[in-house]
Amino acid sequence: MCLPQPRTVPHPHHQKQRAQQIARLAVRSLHAELVLYPKPGLVSLRDNGSHDDMDAACFMRSLFSLRHYFRDIANAGANDAGFHVLKQLGMTAEKRMLTASRGINTHRGAIFAVGMLSAAVGYCISHGQALNAANLRLAIASQWGLALLAHSTPADAQDLSNGLQAARQYAASGAREEAALGFPSVFELALPRLEQSLREGRSLYQAQVDSFFTLMAHISDTNLYHRGGVAGITYARDAAQQFMEQGGTAHPQWLSMAENCHQQFIARSLSPGGTADLLAATCFVHCCIKEFSATGNHE
Fold first, then answer.
1. Do 293 and 124 touch, CB atoms closer than 8 A?
2. What secondary structure does DSSP assign to 219-242, as a single string?
3. In 12-66, which ranges are continuous DSSP H helix?
4. d(CA 153, CA 17)
5. What are phi and psi of 269, to 5 degrees?
6. Mean pLDDT of the 71-79 span
7. What's the pLDDT tens digit per position in 248-296?
8. DSSP string spanning 65-126?
9. What angle is formed at CA 45 by the lines to CA 41 and CA 48, rounded to 5 degrees?
10. 136 has a pLDDT exceeding 50
11. How far, in Å, CA of 251 to CA of 247, rounded?
12. Inter-axis angle of helices 222-245 and 162-170, to 10 degrees?
């Protein structure tokens, strides 16, 4: 049984600074996901991927609208807020996103995933805990685990998002289940892959590409189910697995391989949006651990 951790109350000014710092890293991570190319089927600065309803400018408006949300949810986590508070902040953020994007779902999954992780970062820092993968996962489980588990199985079938509808139809896991389990795809797959690629001497850009394909090869991306059904996600997983088995970005021709995969996804109208959300979450965790380990968690 996880007992509540004693809280070291920081100076209000310092806590506000930390929350703003977390928010900057969250927005930066969403931007890193947007500009990464190639990401098969997804919007980037180069093209709109498989989408005719959104572009990079739409994503930029959306992520800019979320900067105060990440600050507020980090503060809420630092103040031991319950899940109902975090959920309300997320719902408000989603409304802002839809206003900024003119009704397009650009960041719903990221609002949930990066939002929960922002709260966990705020919690760890305010409790004087070292910011690492184990403590972040423990914070999520101990503070909001039971509520997340209940949240992952909505009772009402009405007004479900496309992702939730696909999750029900194909018994796939989505963002809610991922959070309830402590983001295993981030902490057990994508983050280790990113760190390994960096250790092997590849750039952060290449490491992010490797993480993206690693995620796509393993997760049950409900966006892929929604667009392509079982055949679509099977194709996507096989393509990602093949890319990584050939060495990922260590392969001399990796860029042309990834660009060809991108074109094949466009031809099939496939878009791994869930993978993109988890990549942003992975970038966020990586940046937070690096930044707060270097500067210290508290004043």
1. no
2. S--HHHHHHHHHHHHHHHHHHHHH
3. 12-35, 56-65
4. 36
5. 60, 35
6. 98
7. 999 999 999 999 999 999 999 999 999 999 999 999 999 999 999 865 5
8. HTHHHHHHHHHHHHTT--HHHHHHHHHHHHHHHHHHTTS--SSHHHHHHHHHHHHHHHHHHH
9. 35
10. yes
11. 5
12. 70
